[in-house]
Amino acid sequence: MSSLIKILAISGSTRKDSSNFKLLKYISGQLKSKFEFEIFEDLDKLPHFNPDLDTDNPPKEIISFRNKIINADGVVVCTPEYVFSLPGSLKNALEWLVSTTIFSGKETGLVTASASGEKGHEQLLLIMKTLEAKFDSKTELLIQGVRGKISSEGKITDEQTVVALQNFINNFESHFL
């Protein structure tokens, strides 16, 4: 049995090499050795939310997704903003969770990294409050102009962003250690 603290990371972008995915890789690399960090990469494989299918026996992809959250000690969501909102794929995934209590009290870190991101970040915070995720102002972060702050190799090139991410990581981590 593993004594590592399990963190599930969800990127709101379905692009395989997105800035949000790179940020999650960066966060993963910064966490202490006591953490097992898994990045959920099947957001685009979840079926469209349909309340008629949200029964005691939902689609197998949804059961698997929910189980990953249930089995995680904490969750980090890192998302871009699309058209002043959350990406549809992330919103769809979160809609599959509304009828559950799997986020109730779950330690959660929320990052919105986009060109502007303000509206998307507001929506992410509102939805996660609705899901009763456990987060505060120290475990949520808005990174504006992200493409100019991260290299193609995933190196954070902006010093203020490095500091903000490290504060976010330290605050998130402190909830477990």
TrEMBL record:
InterPro entries named among the record's database cross-references: Flavoprotein-like_sf (IPR029039), FMN_Rdtase-like_dom (IPR005025), NAD(P)H-dep_reductase (IPR050712)
GO molecular function: FMN binding; oxidoreductase activity
Chain ranges of the NADPH-dependent FMN reductase-like domain: 5-133
One matching Pfam family: FMN_red
SUPFAM superfamilies: Flavoproteins
GO cellular component entries: cytosol
Name of the protein described by the UniProt record: NAD(P)H-dependent oxidoreductase
